[in-house]
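User: My collaborator sent over this chain with a note saying "see what the structure looks like." That's all I know about it. Can you take a look?
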Amino acid sequence: MKKLFFVLLLSCLGIVTLQAQSITKPSKGSRLFELSASGLDNLGAGLNTTRGGLMVRDFVSNKRARRIAANLNLTFKTDSPEIKKFNEISFLYGIENHMKGSSRMSTYWGYAGGLNMASTDNISLTVGVYTGFDFYLADGLYIGTEVGYNALIDLIKGGESAFGLYLPGAAMNGALRLGYRF
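Assistant: Without extra context I'll predict from the sequence alone. Here is the result:
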């Protein structure tokens, strides 16, 4: 079923990209809404947990955007005693700096910060940097990907007040995104 879905998705993307149409990338005043998802951990890459999110981006100039995101991370219980069910939600605010890219591709880098809550006994502030791109399939409709690196500052750990910096090492957060410009 997954292979069939993947073939259909690639076919649709190919048809859309072959059509000749004018594409306008976002500019000052544009608002973008997107859904993101990743499951790179399921591929054995060890990059992150299963993650889904919503994000709104507002362009304050032709090359700069503000973003507000809410993400939900899940690791499902497995047979391994080392991996436990884990739920995490984060709320982030960030700034994107867009580069030239091409007629259909918008490349960017940025930074973000926010609140990260794992169940009710672990609360952290998070800061991070990221880079990514959006590829416009049609005017306003895009897919993209992003990769970033985050650091956590613990406020509550294990239900106890705590203050400590946590750098997750080589763990990176990656996501595939689908969005639309209003």
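A starting point for your reply to your collaborator: The helical segments are 2-18.
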